[in-house]
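Hi,

Apologies if this is the wrong queue. I'm a grad student, and the batch job for Membrane bound O-acyl transferase MBOAT family protein from Stanieria cyanosphaera produced an output file that my downstream script rejects. I'm not sure whether the problem is my script or the file. Here is the sequence I used:
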Amino acid sequence: MLFNSYIFIFLFLPITLIGFFTLGKFRLIYAAKLWLLVCSLFFYGYWNPSYLLLMMISIVFNHQMGRVISLVPLKSKQATILLWIGLIINLVFIGYYKYANFFVATVNNLFTSNIFLNEIILPLGISFYTFTQMAYLVDAYRGEIKGETNYDLITYSLFVVFFPQLVAGPILRHDELIPQLYKLKNFIFSHKNFAYGLTLFSLGLSKKVLIADNISPWVATVFDHASEITFIEAWVGGLSYTFQLYFDFSGYSDMAIGLGLMFNIKLPINFNSPYKASSISDFWRRWHITLSNLLRDYLYIPLGGNRKGTIRQYLNLLTTMLLGGLWHGAGWNYVVWGGLHGFYLSINHWWRKQQKPLPQFLGWSLTFVAVIFSWVLFRAKNIHEGAEIIETMIGFKGVVLPGEPNGKLAILNSFGIELRRWNQLNYLPLAYGSKTNSIFILIGLTLWVKILPNPQELLQQFKPNWWWAIGVGFSASLCLLSLNRVSEFLYFQF
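Support response: The file is valid. Your script probably expects a header line. Output copied below for reference.
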């Protein structure tokens, strides 16, 4: 079920809220948890009921494994063995459903073999709920679950499948959600939290429906013609995907946090204006924050972090980001994307040691352009097409700009830059708007993400008055009128 659908907004959400707070009003806390769990399972199973059983098996297994690990001596040999058993089973579980087809295709290409495997459909949200539970097992091993280990199965299950964050995050740790499920006041309706939540949900919905979905045709047009595009078209495609992904995924995260607030649950912030970052390290402290924290705490630091010398630190960064790329999808372009960011981070750490800070605008510009190039590889169908688009963006295939061939700018011809009139440009996104509109819109979005406050910053100024009601109501109405062309969130495929 999609957040940006009529059935979710007008049926599922109101029914779930009414049932939850009605039970809470009568202090039927266990029943309220059970209700929210059942609704969350229905939310997930609405897409494909066959994978609901798969997720439930995963939940029961990890809950019991966490219980057993926490009952043996802390970090003992027995606990270590149990932890590795739990992690390996989870990796086999996700490896089969997410990477089996990729592995077989890679083997067939390398060895010209003909191994056949029926196509395996990727279960929705498997990366999120599997890694959430693997982190839970590690926390149990570290003794961070303490004596209540033993969260009951209903509470633990709700921690994993709470529907706002189930499919595309934020990725939660047990101590970020489970303690909230034991607070009686969270089962009592709060007008303040509901107002904040509804506002944030509406802002996130606007990002998705009014911005991300409307620029997606430019993305598809360019990336579907990787070998035919010109210099401007390549930049239009690269920038369009950069903003489509941002407004789509950050919109989902805002909606998830807003939905959590409606139920008096505070979910962690997942985005903090990442395109304002002035370095790659800063970017990863702002983009998909919960994934960054997960990779740092459960992979980079256990590998040694920066404690074992400079070379080892760079290897740890590269390994962490390669696996982070593979987490996103079963494809070599994701691996290369992760490796590229590992390389970026290594350069970033090396430069910081030189103690020669860049001017802020230069640092931001370099970071933003580096991120755009990486997103091109991330979005491309394969590495070859991604490389073709980047070559065009750099100008290796020639640079064609709008202008009068014999005008004042004709001097640019001596630098290998060709000028053509607008009507002579091969401009693929023309079917979706005028030639100039897309460029001005992308420039406007660049200024938006660089200068304007994000929804969390806006909500610090939130006051439930008529001005806010009119503004949020207007944007929500525009979104509702646009839901006839519902589209999935991009991160659903990961």
